[in-house]
C-alpha cells in the first residue's frame, strides 16, 4: 500500500509548545483477518509495518526553528477495525478503527539556535479513527481516513492526521 499523508502535529511541555503542518508519503505491508462477523457488522484485526517520510515544513518550537525538516521512520501497528459486514461492490464502506502503534525512530539531533538537543523519539501511540474505502475493481480500492492519536509515552503529544491512499488486495 502506498499513501499520501497530511495533518497537524502538536506538542507542548511545561515550558514550551509547538505546532506544525506535516505532509509526506508512506509505503506499507498489511495483513489482517476477520475476527467476528454477523449480518450487520464485522470486526477485523490488522498488523502493519510502514516506512514513512514526513516533511515538517520548518517545525517551530515557540519562536525557534528546528533544523530538521524531514522525519523517516518505520512504524509497527496493531489494529481493530469495525465495518459493515456486507456491502455492495463499488459503494462507499465506512469504518471505525482503534490502533496501537510503535514508531521505530532513531535518536534525533536538533539544533535550537546554538544549542543542540538529542532526543530519542521512539514512541507508542493509541489512535482512534474514522474512514471509508471504495472499491474501484476486483482488487483495487481507494481509502481515506481521519485519525486522532495520543502519545502514550508523553502526556502532551497528540496528532490529528488524514490519510488518502490506494490499496491493492490479494
Automatic annotation (TrEMBL):
<dbReference type="InterPro" id="IPR006315">
    <property type="entry name" value="OM_autotransptr_brl_dom"/>
</dbReference>
<dbReference type="GO" id="GO:0019867">
    <property type="term" value="C:outer membrane"/>
</dbReference>
<dbReference type="InterPro" id="IPR005546">
    <property type="entry name" value="Autotransporte_beta"/>
</dbReference>
<dbReference type="Pfam" id="PF03797">
    <property type="entry name" value="Autotransporter"/>
</dbReference>
<feature type="domain" description="Autotransporter">
    <location>
        <begin position="1"/>
        <end position="170"/>
    </location>
</feature>
<dbReference type="InterPro" id="IPR036709">
    <property type="entry name" value="Autotransporte_beta_dom_sf"/>
</dbReference>
<protein>
    <submittedName>
        <fullName>Autotransporter protein YapE</fullName>
    </submittedName>
</protein>
